[in-house]
Amino acid sequence: MATCKEIFDAMPGQFDADSAADWEAKVQYNIEGDGGGNWVVAVSGGSCEISAGTADDATATLETDAETWVGIAEGTVEPTTAFMTGKIRISGNMADVMKSQKVFKRP
């Protein structure tokens, strides 16, 4: 099983720049529990930058626990179901979180 850090570290290699060419966003991920942490995914001009920490100017914030986040990344947890059951909380521009599912291709 991957860790949250490994998932975020792998995201630049899964980034589809063509799908994100006109997308500008900064999504804050707050992952709670064992192995969690905070990460910022910034997309601009068809490129992405991922860093540990927090952003005051995030366009959206996603909060979940480490088990749910790893499950989503590994394909064992359906993101929509997790959201509908309250395992994922989103504030800000929900469209930015949804778009991130399309521009970061899971292996």
Instruction: Give the strand line-up of the largest sheet.
Output: 3-2-1-4-5
CATH topology: Nonspecific Lipid-transfer Protein, Chain A
Specify the oligomeric state: single chain
Q: Helicity level, as a percent range?
A: 25-40%
Number of helices: 4
CATH class value? Alpha Beta
Number of DSSP strands?
Answer: 5
User: Could you tell me the mean pLDDT?
Assistant: 94
Extract low-pLDDT stretches. none
Structural class: alpha+beta
Structural shape? globular
Structural Rg: 13 Å
CATH architecture: 2-Layer Sandwich
Straight-line distance between termini = 14 Å
Number of domains: 1
The name of the CATH superfamily reads SCP2 sterol-binding domain
Q: What is the H-and-E element order?
A: HEEEEHHEH
Describe the sheet with the most strands.
Answer: 5 strands, mixed
Proportion of residues in extended strands: 25-35%
Give structural notes.
By secondary structure, this protein is α+β, with helices and mostly antiparallel strands. The chain has one domain: 2-Layer Sandwich (Nonspecific Lipid-transfer Protein, Chain A). The protein has helices at 4-10, 66-74, 79-84, 94-103; strands at 25-32, 37-44, 47-52, 60-65, 88-92. The protein has a five-stranded mixed beta sheet with strand order 3-2-1-4-5. The longest helix has 10 residues, at 94-103. It is globular. The model has no long low-confidence stretch (mean pLDDT 94).
